[in-house]
Amino acid sequence: MEIDEVLLNKLKKRFEEIKGQRIEEARKLGIYSMVATVTEELGSTFAVKHGDLHVFPPMTWEEFRRVKPTDYELYMLYDDYGHNIDVWYKGRKVFRANLGDVTLYIPGEWVEELKKLYAVAKDAMRKRWLKRELEALKKEAEKWGLTLKDLGIDEVV
After folding, report:
1. What is the domain count for the chain?
2. Domain ranges, residue 21
3. Position 62 in a domain
């Protein structure tokens, strides 16, 4: 097939359409938020010059400096200062956000894995929130000379 300007322009137009659809799909799915939550809740956090770097899977700083994203089946990196995210799946970069804007999204089975991890991360966040709220309630109740038992609970697990 011979390429001319008309065909090239059609190809470029189709590419931009697909790219736009993928960006919209990534936004609707909340990929950015899911990755940020998973890396913050289930990964490792490293304080750097500006903000924190969050990486999943969890690892030490030494491992982080030594490994390559392609060493893992699923590897996610979130820079909370620059709002940058990179996700690799089976050696291929499948998602990128720069300054919070989606610049790459390749749909695939990795999204289902991310959703499962996100559910675990949300549960961890919820449990941590409940614990903080309970501690605040206990503190406030103590000011009033009350215990959790006085409020109707013998023990909290």
Report:
1. 1
2. 5-119
3. yes
24-77: per-residue pLDDT in tens? Answer: 999 999 999 999 999 999 999 999 988 999 999 999 999 999 999 999 999 999
Nearest to 76 by CA among 48, 55, 62: 55
How, if at all, do strands 101-105 and 84-89 pair? unpaired
Are 87 and 39 in contact, with CB atoms under 8 Å apart?
Answer: no
55 is a domain residue: yes
Report residue 82 CA to chain centroid gap. Answer: 14
Q: Give yes or no for residue 151 having a pLDDT over 80.
A: yes
3-state secondary structure of 1: coil
The answer for residues whose C-beta is within 8 angstroms of residue 156's C-beta and 6 or more apart is 134, 148
Distance CA 151, CA 39 (A): 37
Place of tokens 């291929």: 92
Asked whether the whole model's pTM tops 0.90, one would answer no
